[in-house]
Specification:
The complex is a heterodimer.
Chain A (H helix, E strand, L loop, with lengths): L1 H36 L3 H4 L14 H9 L2 H33 L4 H11 L4 H15 L6 H26 L3 H8 L4 H12 L1 H17 L2 H6 L8 H5 L3 E2 L3 E2 L1 H21 L1 H10 L5
Antiparallel strand pairs in A: 1-2
Helix pairs in contact in A: 1-13, 3-13, 4-7, 4-10, 5-7, 7-10, 8-9, 10-14, 13-14
Chain B lengths: L2 H10 L8 H31 L1 E4 L4 E4 L3 H8 L3 H30 L6 H13 L2 H12 L4 H7 L12 H29 L3 H9 L4 H28 L4 H6 L11 H11 L3 H29 L6
Antiparallel strand pairs in B: 1-2
The chains are: A mainly alpha, B mainly alpha.
Amino acid sequence: MKTTKQTKHIKRTLNYLFLCLVALVALAPILWMISASLKSPNEILRYPPTIIPEDIKWENYQAVFELQPFTQQFINSVVIMALVAVLTILMSVPAGYALARVKPVASGAIFLVLLSAMFIPPEATIIPLFQYAAKLGWVDTHYPLVVFTAVLVTAPIATFVMRQAFLTLPAEFEEAATIDGSSRLRTMLQIYFPLARPSLASVVVLSCWYSWNQFLEPLIYLRSPEKLTVPVALTHYEDPLAGPLWGAQMAATTLSIIPVLLVFFFAQRHVVSGLTAGGLKS
Amino acid sequence: MTTETATSSVRRRPPGRDTGRSPFGYALLAPQMIGFTAVGAVAIIWVIWLSFHHVNALAGTQEFVGLDNYGRILTDPSMITVLPNTFFFVCVLSIAGTVAALLLALLLNQTLRGITVFRSIIFIPALVTMVAWALVWSFIVQPEGLLDALLGSVGIDGLPWLRGGWLTLVIFAVIQLTKNIGINVVILLGALQSVPQELLEAGRIDGAGPPRLIRSVVLPQISPAILMVFMLTVVGSFKVFEIILLLTEGGPGVQSSVLSFEVYKQGFLLNDIGYASALAVLLFVLILLLTAVIWQARKRVVFHEDD
């Protein structure tokens, strides 16, 4: 009896040790970044490095805003993200409903076409899309980042998610509503859409996350510093001769991460279900 | 995934109520489909068309060259490095990524005090943008950075992390793998938690120990989720882009480059649009082929695909 209790105890300790190791691998880069962002230029390059800054300096955070219009770049990212989310919802919710509940002729084929969009890598279409944007006069504007992203990436994935959501809702609602004389449109708007709200939250999180993370596209389409988005701006904290300005770069990176962590902290359930929604099976 | 059942239920529906069904459905699908055709289909046809041409970006001329650009892929000496690198990432990231996510999910599925905190922590890197993650790591692996200091304290002196060769590829794989593993872990955790307790109970009564339970009950039950994670990591593994651009720019030479980075380099840094388009088509075809093969193989590995 005593030995089984002991082995149980050892097993639990090992579990915790391993969990702590995993947590360290996940968190160490982020903690190291925050620590570096608070160091003086002198201390940041010292070897061996200090884990905790000797005295906390905020000058790196000042530099973030002096070197680039970081506030503007942050606003750009947020606006683009919001527009992508809105456009994604406008396209994917009706489309998902059509594929799950209305099922017009050939909807199976349409679904497969949309599903295949998930496998198109952005690198494969960036060359024609850039030429496309150039022809439309969209270079150095935010239009391609909103329109192309929503139409090509986030809306197809969201349609997939919304289709699953409407499939899990009982079909009897539709029959009952039809008997009561509700039109197709009204059944959709007043009965099914409100019931699919949790999945709508997932779709918003998913499209926001995708847009916020985008790097290749803004890197290609945007030129002027005041038009850049956060991920591209982060890479511009460099001196042409001396290389990366680590302090300012780490400070800017910290600033870019904090709002996301706050959102995660307050809406953890929605964030988790949103980011895993793309991979969930029916 | 359930298209077969979808079409059959359409057929079963009584015909009388179907009036106006298709027009209504098409109206709902229209914004998505028109947008998708106008951007996606056009882009794919366009990139294929470009891949058959020699494009002079400065003069703005395009000259039809047939399969020349594809022939160049075969004779390009840098492809001898780039293609194996690409396959290295695809194999390592998909297999190691799925196995690691599965082990972590099993670990995090236990009932231990404070386990929810650990579940949240493993998700945090997924919230950081890939660029931020790559920048922090480039700070960590720079000469005389944190990694050198940590290894130095146990007597290992400054390894050439970013000077090409397998070491650079391995460190890139680690950076990429740790970034999004949290998402896969949570997908698998969700599947693990929906394994019916009765099945586990029945297995225990039949005398199966924990390893046997995992192999014979848990793994078959969550195999659809494992397949989904595997497909996601396969597709994702072709997109090791940010790390390469920010840490080595593919260098030295093309030693740490992959196909997706070569598309960017040829197309936007060297302005060789025809060749870059051919590489882009190759990338697209490789992903489609690989996912099609996995999708076909699923019937043999995945338990109760039809539910």
